[in-house]
Amino acid sequence: MDGGLRGAGKQALGAMNPLCTLRYSATHVDKHHMVFRLDAVDAYECRLVKQIEVASATVKDAHNKPYVRLLSVGNTRGVIGAKVALDVKSATVVQRREVSVQDGDDLEQTAKRAVYRDCRVGEIRVEKGNEFMELRVPGGERFLQIGETWGDVDPLAVQREMFKDTRGNTRADDATYNLIMRDKEKLLSLDTPLKFIFSHSALREGWDNPNVFQICTLRDIQTERERRQSIGRGLRLCVNQDGERVRGFETNTLTVVANEGFEAFAENLQKEIEKDTGIRFGIVERHQFAAIPVTGEDGRRAPLGVEQSEVLWKHLKAQGYIDARGRVQDALKQALKGGTVSVPEPFAPQLDRITEVLRKLAGRLEIRNADERRPVRVRKEVFLSPEFKALWDRIKHKTTYRLRFDNEKLIEDCIVAVRDAPAIPKARLQWRKADIAIGRAGVETTEREGAATVVLTEADIELPDVLTDLQDRTQLTRRSIQRILSASGRLDDFRRNPQQFIDLAAEAINRCKRLVLVDGIRYQRLGDEHYYAQELFEQEELIGYLRNMLEDTTKSVYEHVVFDSGAESAFADRLEKNTDVRVYAKLPGWFTVRTPPGGYNPDWAVLIGHDGAERLYLVVETKGSLFATDLRRAEGAKIACGKAHFKALEVGESPARYMVVSTVDDMFGLA
């Protein structure tokens, strides 16, 4: 809608004199009345976009020419200055550093290098939209805008190392152009092996190819918004030859070839996300949990509040999850990965919401380093061993499931759940008073007596279509929803506070549905021709990164174990060191069990055997907590379905057993 960086689309829309506009964008220039937001962190955690990795195309050890890059300009207490990047001489080496300069500064003295002789800073302008710095160099002047560079290695020389120059003058080039720009369905076909490079700036709105896996920045990115827009087209999930979305980071990895270091790219992208979403990565504020809704003893829902939020903050600090400044510690990251975050008993009902807030704050958006990317090969001596074949034969078969439940009982359960749900209060206004004292220590506030809550009478509320709203949220029929609401006796609450009632009713109904799905599911093994072939270990490529890899394993079906958390790394290490473990596999992403909440990928397949004793074949799910209340609802439902799936495969001699454990010792205790 904004029409790219220049806003042409917004100007065209304004000429139409619309009565209203509904706007959606990943990178809004002007933020108006936001009705829904799926921010960058949400999208990444839900895997609705590709994983990002960066291949750094930076120049090393080329400090033979003067280099000046304008980073920013500013006016601090009447002193106009700029921040620039220079190649500065240190005690032993020359390093590229950020330095502050003013009008008239001699860069030879600033950088302590003769290569900057006769290079001086001239006029610095801080006028918004017209920022620049004059650079006086031998032979004339250069006017640098923010992000622009003077000197250094010829950028064309770098680009020539990346691409072969084509002029587009031949008939073959015309045919290729038509294939790319017009025959997109043919382009996506596996019968067309063409790989191509296109210029992002040459494309206009409406051109969309989700199968973009590499993006190369040929010039300096001057603004953080431009950074996100430049890589935005590559973040869409790819599609197969049938036009269906392919999900999972195994396939959806976007490689950004950046003309800056990996660390700098990640840092700058994070700054933009922090600015756009308001998230301060790694910092938990004292008021962070104040808006979380809680239900009181009288059934009324209200925000947790600043005072209780601070109580929770102090608990996190006492547990070692955060330091005195609120900075996230490794202990919290490990607890989040393992699902073992602890909160005081009064906050237990809000654990899911608290964990959701902490997960957003606990770390930076994970960006992989392309230099650490490694293909992981199959270890032949394990893959071809009779032990692994025996293990795989017991878990390879596929199943189908049926949902058996009494529809009438589901409706009755929903009626009870809605009827017994907490009371819904009217809208209200809370008054609080405080004294403000301004001193050298800062601004302090002390709350006074007189706090009060006033109920607001909203006579002009326009009631929404409750049946349609709940149908969209629960996927039940309108007739079933009408029965539930009428029999619950809670329609007066709908008139009192429509939105809260819809939220509460949808939550109650969906909770009943989840219980029915898990309790009523029945798995059945398909025929012998439906299974995951052992050859898929060789045919499907497995990619890992050094920082998430246990290298040179001897009992694993792969040469290295790619792990997702510290708990998985420790589990694999213990499997390697335990003499009773014969072979094992960290099950790859293509090995999935179909479940109503979505595909389920178990963690491990393990073969245990003593000399001369019976062998045990296990499918193991590792979790930091074994309590069902500590697992997220969808995750717990998938585990329950996984248990039913492997139960259906328990045929023949020594079938594989499914278990959920925290450690290798727990696994042996249950075995």
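Second entry:
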Amino acid sequence: MRKPTVKNRLYLCLLCLATTLLAAKQFVSVGYYSVLHDDTVTYVGWARQFLQGLREGVWYPRWMPDECRGYGCPTFLLYPPLSFYAAAAFAELTGSLLLGMNMVRWLALYLTSLGIYFLLREHLTPRSAFLAALCYLLFPFTVLQQYLCGSFAATVSTVWFAPILVHLLRYHRNRHWAAVIWAGLCYGGLLLTHLINAYMFSFVMGGLLVCLATGGRRVATLWALPLVMAIGALVSAAYLLPLVCERGDLQLASFVTQGAGFDYRYFFLFPSRVHLIPPSVFWPRFYRLYLVHELLLLGLLGYALLRLVRVGRTPGDFQNTGAPLCRLFAVLALLTLYPTIGASQWMWRLVPFFNYIQFPYRWLQLSVFLCTPVAGWLWAVQERACPARTFRASVAMTMVAMATVAVCWIQQAHGLTGKELAAQAGPSPPEHLPVGVEAGSLQRAARTAVVEGRGTAAVLRWQTTRRLVAVMAGENLTIRLGTLHFPGWRAYLDGNPLTLKAEAGSGAMLARVPSGSHRLELEFVDTGPRLLGKALSLASLTLLAGWLVALRRTGRSTACPSLPGDGAG
């Protein structure tokens, strides 16, 4: 790795300044900026309840008590928690949840640009790497994600893309175990931030390693993929293992069967099917913007391929300008653009879990990232081929044009304030509901209600994972509790275990209580898979940290042993 210089530090500061200016509106006028109204209300509501759970001493809040009209649901059994931990930390530091979420988005964007810079600095000049990172920040799609159409965790998850690729490239070059471990740790972070993006990025990792293995005649490079994915799965086991083991308790089928608004066939960029989508869905309004971005990326890649052909006529220039890196990322970018068109329907039907991506336009987030190294190489070629004054003029014109578009879009963005969000309730995703619960039968939940017998049930404490109810029963009672029945909930009557039942249709808890004065306590505890997952994550992190320390001390012995399939690189 190159040692930091004054110029490198200046580039890092300039990227920080650019990111801050891009996100300034989110700090000056604190609000959550997105046109995805339901998603905004939902994510902010989750962040608020997640923070509430942490404040109550729950280290991993899986149960969101205010979802499903107050019945609650195990949101974070299905949804990764890492971005919400970060939001909670910044909310505590700033005293504002919305400001905390905006700080997380700002930090993720800045770290993503830093990752791009460090990724390219190992292959191109520092100036070209800086210009590529700056192009990523100012590219209209980045602004679109930050202010208009990006969901919270999905935009944060980009922070892991560059570090994974950096370490995979280092592994291919140096064959050091440490690179595989670091790539696996970063992939675990991606799994814990956004599962769908992690699934999509696994295809990018596979494509990268296949290209490296075939181009360098080092087939053993492919061993890195299962190793990285295994390390990532172990690190994120606290989230993944319960999801895998308890997925049968959730209505996951509804994730891909919610009609035209969630069917991938309606969201291809070509051919257009926006006329078949309900007007209430955002896609008809933004389809053309996404299509323009796809055409821009295709134009960039086409121009880069033409330059590659010209540079390829001089073998020395081809290697010295970083052309192999450009060719590699151009191929990967084209592969990620393919699932956005209708001709890729066979992939969506045949590849396992592909339809859970839901929206083909999600791939554009990866395409934009992968086109950034291509842009960096083009800047490097331009710098070598043009006089300094001409090069500076072309840089200035490009950046001013992108910044102008960014400013126009930012000015049009509208942020929902805390008061506006507090007054609204987002729809609870049906895939988060326990099996057997009919969403239409859920009305605003009363915390307790006597449905059979004479008596009263008064709430003494009602927290995220602990509830205490005082019961006065003149005869045997059946009490309906405003909480969905789900594995992990335990009931105790005067300290003794009590069996709960689920009400037909609503899925609410029913507790049978004998006559007399009683204390009914509810507690949401970890099941076996949840405990095992936490143990695996903790043990994996401990062992991997120890391994990294040991490898660092042994120095040169960090190199991997020779594996079958190694060839002359």
